[in-house]
Request: fold
Amino acid sequence: MIDFGGPLGPIQPRRSGRLGDTVVTYLVDRIVAGEYPVDSVLPTEPELCDEFGVSRTVVRESIKLLEEKGLVRATPGRGTRVLEPPGWNLLDPIVLEAQIRHDRELGILDDLVSVRAALESDMVSATAKAITAAQQQGLADQIEVLASLIDDAERYAAEDVVFHDLIMVASGNRLGHAIIHSIHSKARLSSRYNGTPTAADLAQSMSEHRQIEALIRSGDAERVSALMRTHIVGSWNRRRPEVHDALGRAAG
Reply:
């Protein structure tokens, strides 16, 4: 029987209709959780076929996908061995989800916030130099949308993402936008990343958003870059579970 429960919450397997997706999701989770330690050998093909009720073809395809994600190496006659974490592809959605789920010390979320802050601070600087009149109007309109939702934390959080997306699109940095979209969307699935915002948290977030929009409008690339970094890192520091309580606090 497959147990999809992890120490920090249940796994949500992908439901694409492919049996291999379930096998891959399960094996990635066990590897990241340390159930299959580094340098250990995964169960044999017949054992995996029996456990999951799938064919050898499905198991072989799943192992190939694990290799592509950098988690294992299959060697004829020696089995499939788990590789060191530095080689794992953290931009792969299944791997990143598992890392966040088993991130007891929050190190992966700290790294994620650091990467996001670095990229977005650079991108907002570019936006301040290159934003069009139409894009600026869109950003100003989004500020008003956020202001109208200051008492609705869930909807505010969704529109907060839109605000940041508008800035990244205006920067013209498509790769940076894609990286942040990928890692941030996975982080937002974690309650430990999101926390529970207070009225004060939302008010501070709203104030910083207004300042960011104003600095972009004035073309002050240097100051808006510094403010964006402060905004992202400061928000995480306020809601990070070790800083306050286990639920955390948030204002994105």
In short: The CA atoms of residues 145 and 207 lie 14 Å apart. Confidence is low (pLDDT under 50) at residues 1-17, 243-251. The domain at 106-239 is CATH 1.20.120.530 (Four Helix Bundle (Hemerythrin (Met), subunit A)). The longest helix spans residues 107-130.
